[in-house]
Design brief:
The complex is a heterotrimer. Chain A has 2 domains: 193 residues, no CATH class; 172 residues, Rossmann fold. Chain A is built from 16 helices and 11 strands. In chain A, helix 3 runs antiparallel to helix 6 and helix 6 runs parallel beside helix 8. Chain A is globular and about 70 Å long. The two termini of chain A are 21 Å apart. In chain B, helix 6 runs antiparallel to helix 7, helix 6 crosses helix 8 and helix 8 packs antiparallel against helix 9. Chain B folds into 2 domains: 194 residues, no CATH class; 193 residues, Rossmann fold. The relative contact order of chain B is 0.10. A 7-stranded mixed sheet of chain C has the order 3-2-1-4-7-10-11, sandwiched between helices. Chain C has a 3-stranded antiparallel sheet with strand order 5-6-9, with helices on one face. In chain C, helix 4 runs antiparallel to helix 5. Chains in contact: A-C, B-C. Chains A and C meet through helix 12, strand 3, helix 13, helix 14 and strand 8 of A and helix 8, strand 3, helix 9, helix 10 and strand 8 of C.
Chain lengths: 456, 395, 330
């Protein structure tokens, strides 16, 4: 569909240029895009789920390739290369990253990992819907099979599996491998044969009627589920903010760093319930999002004090709770958060201050962090730290030994290990860091962790 | 299990090294008298720590096949070696003989390293021809420096030399009118030092008696004469306790120690070094000696001590260190690699391909936060007192 | 008062007021030199005793300085030293002799306690730098700078990570000086210290003062750096002259601290677009807090390098005690 391609390309360009602000917006746009892809996708009568999954995977691949954080392989080189200082505006850096233009926008693109998450969610939805439909179909078909062909049950040579067994088998291929299913006989084609073998068993006519209705049904169900997903994303802030009252009490002192819409909503919800408390905001250099947050909070009537990031350890002994937003939540319960939060988490642990992370479900990422400092990080322009003019001679690659005397490092994210996080507040409630694996199993399927089309 | 006298073992080991194709070392020691520049005198085998060799010789155990090798190399009368050395010493300069004197003393298994050093320095005083304190001090300083550079890995040697030099400086500052009386006083103190050392062990043993209660289980690592004294005293005062002994590869100090303890009728159980964490549950306390106590309050001891201290800390078991005060040294390692490397050859019993590296370091550093208490002849100390004592001494 | 203003306006005070002189040693030396000038030109008024009058004058000057900026602990110690010397002046001395004694005392103090002490510290610290090391330092400390330059001079191969923070951005000056000498440097801001710490072997930090319980009182942000270093098992070495040791104890950074100019937070030099807090003074709910110092707990510190040698943080009161015996401080 030229229409879909155009849409996809447009979105990819937006992502690359970081014109999308905030992970919530990114997630919403991704979901909407995938919804339109699904609705416009023409799918064959057989193996529809597989076709849909393929289509989504191809789009997903493109989207994920557009963001710097999730791409495998290029990551390490990209990270090293991004440490170089720009010379005179264009130059070295761009060559090294293959001509990708990195404009410094005021809005940051927090959406990188969210894109991948939404793609995987949608894939999971497709599989689930397919499964439920198949289970229903099998249930109906096997009844009819039993009623029609009870005399020659074995005539095709295929053993007729009972509906329950088939459903169970199919469900277990959907779930990640578990001890329960370890010893069960699990032909991998268990999911596929019901569609084909049941097609072979019963009448042709009723089958085709069934098929077309089923195909329409699958699409319909999937789109409904995606709509629900979009709705969830849109309202995740409210759901999280509802829980604010339980955690923030009267006369408390709260510390936060940088800025996050979830945190703003959270704090304001508590304020509306007539709790009076103070907020310390660390400014979050070199992007100074803390200033934005402070302005916002003051406008809504909260007592705010702005401190520098270096004063976090000094102030944390006087703080009751640390509340922050995360960029992404990894499968082990660790978080990828704006740079500086690892320091805050360590200080909080030292002073036994609870470290609370607010994260919508769309931030849940099924990947496990190995070497997260490098691979899940982004190095931004060094000009935010140093004025280029003063140090131009030190950064020259051509001088002396061929290595510049000066490296400037400006990472955008920090990894906070799960043992430092006291509590996760998501739209489904409060959770421990060690429980994240369960949520991931609920929202993602194991096959989709690497979103790449299998070579056919 | 065989025991041999230390000198025999040392000579045989030297011979083994020669047999392995290091003729240069022998040549070096014979050549040095003719070109004896005190400063450039080198330990014939700098790769191997002489200190740890001696310790192994004292406290380790000779295996049967090693003994077979030694017997196969018979034909060299050990006495020849000694006389050869003494012949050299009469021809050569003072520097060489200090080191030999020291080595001679060091070979005695019951003598502490620092005592051997101080006795060697006393010998220097005795045979010195200086007429003023200043001259004597300079001579002593040279001798002490050469001793220290002979074996850079031995902390008690360095600490003992420094301690004696400090004492000499302070005595010379006291302005005795008669040089000879000052000299004789120094000599007397030096001789007495052996007694001090011996007494120190007794004091430490007395101090630690309270910490050993009836029915306790003690884990011991390495062969420390002080710890042995502690356990001896405890068993003599009819305390009931049992000892878990680590094997202590590659010197097999545990085997030697278990022998000694069996003689005292103390129930002993041997563990391989890897079984320490497994047995840590039933242990009540850990006793180790120390090769040196450093300024931060941590200790440098046989390889494996740090491991045991880590396990003990994580399971909340106290670690007690028994060390004489003259082992306090002005070192301050920041991590394991921050010390002068002390290497010991390890024999695995099977041939190792040449591509495979072997970690041959003989000692490790245990930081002070893993130690509970230090028993010294100055009393029962916490690790932070060590620095206090050193500052007062050297300020 | 007027005369002191004269001296100060000629030398230390005005630059001091303008924040030009920063760093414990620099401020202390500038102050002592100003005192020297004032003592040189001092003459006892008739019917007054030298000692009492001079002490009163010094107190006057000190309160003037405090108005410009609160005293650092090193300056406080130096003033106490000077007052002790004045009080201990034998009464038999004539005025010129007394003045000469005092001047030479101050000279000796500056020489021994600051300049020579720094040399000793550098000598000790350089033994802890091995070839191939990566050192990390925070802000700008005169002692650490000297260590890096000396180590580079004697040919050690190492590189330095300079961590900087707002609002003072002192690290840039250090960076300048190190890079000019040819030392390979990496520059980053304090939020990224967890990112960079895995490459680091040693952390060298300066201190404004070390308190009696081993707590290190220094530029705000030092505690964060030491904490992250401790987390990564990187040894933290504090380089501090012994005259900065102080007999007080402090548990955290809030008990006593210095506040800087809040406008320094709201304005970001070079980034005009960050102007969200421009009218902070008008909003009653908004406060800006600019702390200058913070207190690093002693368990984050591996070693303190002073002119008395390398000591563990638990031995600080020992040094204070020995110091007092030597120099007869109050």
């Amino acid at each position: 569909m030229p229409d879909t391609h155009a849409l996809v390309n447009e979105f990819v360009i937006k992502l690359k240029k970081r014109k999308v602000e905030g992970s919530k917006a990114t997630a919403k746009l991704t979901a909407e895009l995938l919804r339109s892809v699904i609705s416009q996708q023409r799918i064959p009568h057989t193996n529809q789920a597989v076709a849909l999954i393929d289509a989504i995977k191809s789009v997903g691949e493109q989207l994920i390739a557009a963001n710097p954080v999730e791409r495998d392989g290029d990551k390490v080189t990209a990270a090293k290369v991004q440490g170089f200082m720009r010379t005179g505006g264009v130059g070295l850096w761009e060559e090294a990253t293959g001509g990708r233009e990195k404009e410094r926008e005021d809005g940051d693109s927090f959406g990188e990992l969210a894109v991948g998450n939404i793609v995987r969610r949608v894939l999971h939805i497709i599989r689930e819907e397919d499964l439920s439909l198949t289970t229903a179909a099998i249930g109906g078909l096997s009844l009819s099979a039993v009623s029609d062909d009870e005399d020659d049950v074995e005539q095709d040579g295929h053993p007729v599996l009972s509906a329950a067994a088939v459903a169970a088998a199919a469900r277990s291929t959907l779930r990640p491998p578990s001890l329960q299913t370890l010893l069960e006989d699990l032909p991998h084609s268990a999911a596929a044969p019901p569609t084909s073998s049941s097609g072979g068993d019963s009448d042709g006519k009723s089958k085709s009627a069934d098929k077309s209705s089923r195909s329409r049904k699958l699409k319909h169900n999937v789109i409904e589920a995606v709509n629900e997903l979009i709705q969830d994303i849109a309202t995740c802030h409210e759901q999280i903010a509802e829980q604010a009252v339980e955690h923030i009490h009267q006369n408390e002192v709260i510390l936060t760093l940088g800025s996050s819409i979830t945190v703003i909503e959270f704090l304001c919800a508590a304020k509306e319930k007539k709790r009076s408390f103070r907020v310390f905001v660390a400014e979050g250099a070199p992007r100074y999002q803390g200033h934005v947050l402070a302005k916002e909070l003051v406008a809504r009537g909260l007592q705010t004090t702005v401190i520098t990031d270096s004063a976090v350890f000094a102030m944390i002994s006087r703080v009751n709770m640390v509340i922050v937003g995360a960029h992404a939540v990894m499968a082990n319960g660790g978080i990828i958060a704006p740079v500086g939060l690892n320091m805050v988490a360590l200080a909080a642990q030292r002073h036994a201050v609870p470290f609370v992370v607010l994260a919508g479900i769309h931030k849940l990422c099924p990947l496990y962090p190995h070497n997260p400092e490098v691979l899940l990080n982004e190095l931004k322009s060094p000009s935010e730290l140093l004025d280029f003019g003063e140090f131009s001679d030190c950064l020259d690659f051509g001088s002396g030994t061929g290595y510049p005397l000066l490296h400037v490092v400006n990472p955008a994210f920090d990894y906070v290990p799960p043992k430092l996080v006291s509590l996760f507040i998501t739209d489904t409630g409060g959770h421990n860091a060690s429980y994240m694996y369960r949520l991931i199993a609920d929202y993602y399927s194991a096959d989709d962790f690497v979103v790449q089309r299998r070579p056919s | 299990m065989w025991y041999r006298s230390a000198s025999f073992i040392l000579d045989k080991q030297q011979e083994e090294n020669d047999a392995e194709g290091k003729p240069e070392s022998r040549l070096l020691s014979t050549a040095s008298p003719s070109s004896s520049m005190a400063d450039t005198l080198q330990n014939p085998n700098p790769q191997i720590s002489a200190y740890y060799q001696t310790r192994a010789a004292h406290h380790g155990v000779v295996t049967t096949d090693w003994l077979a090798q030694a017997q196969a190399a018979v034909g060299r009368d050990p006495d020849d070696g000694v006389s050869e050395i003494s012949i050299i010493s009469t021809d050569s300069g003072k520097q060489l003989s200090v080191i030999d004197e020291f080595n001679n003393w060091r070979k005695q298994p019951d003598l502490a390293e620092a005592v051997a050093a101080i006795r060697a320095l006393a010998w220097v005083i005795r045979s010195s021809e200086a007429t003023t304190m200043m001259e004597l001090e300079i001579e002593l300083k040279k001798a002490s420096d050469s001793l220290k550079s002979w074996d850079t890995t031995s902390i008690s040697l360095t600490a003992g030399c420094d301690l004696f030099m400090r004492y000499v400086t302070r005595t010379s500052a006291l302005e005795y009118e008669d040089f000879n009386s000052a000299k004789s006083r120094l000599l007397e103190r030096a001789e007495k030092f052996g007694e001090i050392s011996y007494k120190a062990r007794k004091i430490i043993a007395m101090l630690s008696q309270d910490f050993i209660f009836d029915g306790c289980t003690i884990l011991v690592h390495g062969f420390s004469r002080v710890v042995l004294e502690v356990l001896k005293t405890a068993s003599q005062s009819r305390k009931l306790f049992r000892v878990l002994c680590t094997e202590g590869r590659p010197d097999r100090t545990g085997l030697r120690l278990s022998n000694e303890l069996a003689k005292l009728d103390v129930p002993v159980k041997l563990l391989i070094d890897s079984a320490v964490a497994y047995s840590m549950d039933e242990v009540d306390m850990i006793f180790v000696g120390a090769d040196g106590v450093v300024e931060s309050g941590g200790i440098i001891n046989m390889m494996g001590t740090y491991q045991i201290a880590l396990v003990a800390k994580s399971m909340n078991k106290p670690v007690y260190v028994a060390a004489e005060s003259y082992k306090f040294a002005r070192l301050y390692p920041l991590d394991q690699k921050d010390m002068v490397p002390a290497l010991r050859p390890i024999d695995f019993g099977v041939p190792i391909p040449s591509k495979v590296e072997v970690e041959t370091s003989a000692r490790d550093y245990t930081p002070p936060q893993y130690l509970t208490l230090l028993f010294t002849d100055l009393g029962v100390l916490t690790p932070s007192v060590v620095s206090d004592e050193l500052i007062q001494l050297y300020l | 008062m007027l005369t002191m203003a004269l001296y100060i306006s000629n030398q230390a005070g005005l630059r001091y007021l303008a924040g030009d002189i920063s760093g414990g040693n620099a401020r202390c030396i500038a102050m002592l030199e100003a005192f020297q000038e004032s003592i040189k030109d001092y003459s006892t008024p008739p019917e007054k005793a030298l000692i009492r009058d001079l002490t009163a004058k010094i107190n006057c000057y000190v309160s003037f300085l405090i108005e410009c900026r609160p005293l650092s602990i090193s300056m406080g110690n130096a003033i106490r030293f000077l007052k002790t010397r004045i009080v201990k002046l034998p009464l038999t001395l004539s005025e010129s002799e007394a003045k000469a004694t005092l001047l030479s005392d101050i000279d000796r103090f500056i020489n021994e306690k600051i300049i020579l002490a720094d040399k000793v510290i550098v000598r000790h610290a350089v033994t802890k730098i091995r070839d191939g090391d990566v050192l990390l330092t925070y802000g700008s400390s005169s002692a650490v700078e000297m260590i890096c330059l000396h180590a580079h001079d004697i040919g050690k191969q190492f590189r330095v990570v300079v961590v900087d923070s707002r609002p003072k951005l002192e690290g840039r000056l250090l960076l300048h000086r190190l890079v000019r000498k040819g030392i390979t440097c990496t520059y980053t801001h304090i939020n990224a210290v967890s990112y960079i710490m895995h490459e680091v072997n040693r952390v060298f930090l300066g201190a404004s003062s070390v308190l009696s319980n081993g707590t290190v009182y220094s530029r705000v942000g030092t505690a964060c750096v030491a904490m992250v270093a401790h987390q990564f098992h990187v040894p933290v070495l504090i380089c501090c002259e012994a005259y900065k040791f102080y007999e007080r104890v402090q548990l955290d950074s809030i008990c006593s601290n210095e506040l800087g100019d809040p406008d320094a937070i709201s304005k970001v030099p070079g980034r005009k677009e960050i102007n969200y807090l421009d009218d902070w003074a008008n909003r009653e709910n908004l406060q800006l807090l600019n702390l200058i110092y913070d207190a690093t707990p002693s368990d984050y510190v591996s070693m303190i390098i002073t002119d008395y040698g390398m000591i563990p943080p638990t031995s600080v009161p020992v040094i204070v005690r020995e110091y007092r015996k030597e120099h007869l401080w109050i």
